[in-house]
Amino acid sequence: xxxxxxxxxxxxxxxxxxxxxxxxxxxxxxxxxxxxxxxxxxxxxxxxxxxxxxxxxxxxxxxxxxxxxxxxxxxxxxxxxxxxxxxxxxxxxxxxxxxxxxxxxxxxxxxxxxxxxxxxxxxxxxxxxxxxxxxxxxxxxxx
Length: 143
What we know:
By secondary structure, the protein is an all-beta fold. The chain has no helices and 18 strands. The strands form five sheets. Strands 3, 6, 9, 13, 14 and 18 form a six-stranded antiparallel sheet that branches.
């Protein structure tokens, strides 16, 4: 972990992670966390624990997130929901029927120890998966 100390206080570091493990099926029923992350290039201060970004200091940020999906199969609607979670609270939610969930940037204020992660839930009649790689990511930069 990169730590920058200025005047005895810790400075908020931008962080980012990519999904790096095999494709993950999107379940129907209860929302689940997207798992299998690694630090994103260009974000040396990233801290990941339990598939969540762990915030090192307080400050205002802009969160960026994007999900790549497989085409899937089934006979029902291609409805999938993704939530940007701050600790246990949804900060932004979007439903996607396409193979790429273009999620809006979110401006929020973070506190040291906060956890950022993504939850997902799928359709009862349509199976699909979240793709691994640099196109499935969660990151934040200083606002």
